[in-house]
Specification:
- The chain is mostly helical.
- It is built from 12 helices and no strands.
């Protein structure tokens, strides 16, 4: 949790080593409050699709609240009821938590891993804090909290094993996979197919018509980038994902647009080579690899039979490539 930076370059922030015992307790209280809210946010984020995991994170939020109450009681014992305002961002060598808008974009596995990291960070903080206090009661409390956090480094996984039966865990994993496919794989695959196939005809028609690698490169770049922008905006605009369950339109548009552009750039960039036939030979090889990569992705993630995917992609792409080459050559 502490990076142990020797000094801060940001004015107004203090080093952990300069905090008083009262400030350390105040920092621990605010940190537990933040972690409890983060776990509650995880629970809200997961409630619709992963209700069992949401229950787990609500239990973790309750544990953090118990830590907070113990720390407040210790502060009242030693320093009275008024707790100074000091938060993570006020301390230069204290690791910050991810904001909520980043948490919204985490998948289930990433959220579980983030929870384990948070527990490990908290344990390191309490171990360092215990070394900074001379009061026996405070030292005992901080040591106990450090030990508790160490035991809880895998708390998310332990609670998952206790709360999620085999069927619930399998169903949540299937839901997570389905959401990933709908949000990232499917739009990206559609973009890769469009970028790889639709740009074949103009690029190779230009290549065989001009025999000029530079002109072919410019046409290829324009076709790939233009197709990427068009596909990205189309994907993002036509479905907000609320009814279809396909997830964020921004994510889908980004996946579709980037993969469309990459699909076209793959066989355009070989024309950076000034020798025409060398560039064309490499471009043909890239096309071959692109089309078979699409077949593999369709079979791996979309469960499309290999024969059908091959007919749809490889045969279709070959016909488009032949059409462009014939038109340019004629």
């Amino acid at each position: 949790m502490l990076s142990f930076a020797p000094f801060s370059l940001l004015s107004g922030r203090r080093r952990f080593a300069d905090l008083s015992e009262r400030e350390i307790l105040a920092l621990a209280v605010s940190a537990e409050e933040d972690d409890g809210r983060i776990y509650a946010t995880y629970a809200d984020r997961l409630e619709a699709d992963f209700p069992a995991s949401a229950t787990i994170f609500r239990e973790m939020a309750k544990e953090e609240d118990g830590h907070r109450r113990a720390l407040i009681a210790e502060h009242e014992r030693r320093f009275g009821p008024t707790i100074p305002l000091i938060r993570r961002e006020h301390v230069a060598d204290y690791v910050a938590r991810q904001p909520n808008w980043v948490v919204e974009n985490l998948g289930l596995d990433r959220i579980r891993a983030e929870a384990e990291r948070m527990e490990a960070d908290a344990a390191r903080f309490y171990e360092m804090a215990a070394q900074r206090t001379g009061d026996a009661g405070t030292r005992r409390l901080l040591g106990d909290l450090a030990a508790a956090e160490r035991r809880h480094e895998h708390r998310a996984e332990e609670l998952a094993e206790a709360a999620l039966g085999g069927n619930e865990r399998e169903e949540e994993d299937r839901t997570a996979r389905r959401r990933m496919i709908l949000t990232w794989v499917q739009p990206g695959l559609a973009g890769l197919m469009d970028g790889s196939v639709s740009t074949l005809a103009p690029i190779f028609a230009t290549a065989f018509a001009t025999r000029d690698p530079h002109t072919t490169l410019l046409v290829g770049l324009a076709a790939a980038v233009g197709a990427g922008i068009s596909m990205g905006f189309t994907e993002a605009a036509h479905d907000d994902g609320k009814l279809s369950g396909r997830g964020s339109p921004i994510k889908r548009g980004l996946a579709s647009g980037v993969m469309t552009a990459l699909g076209g750039l793959g066989h355009a960039l070989p024309y950076l080579i000034p020798e025409f036939w060398t560039a064309t030979g490499i471009a043909f090889a890239v096309v071959f690899l692109e089309l078979w990569a699409i077949v593999w992705i369709q079979h791996r993630f979309m469960e499309t039979p290999v024969v059908r995917a091959t007919v749809q992609v490889v045969v279709g792409g070959a016909l488009v490539l032949a059409a462009g080459s014939l038109i340019g050559g004629g």
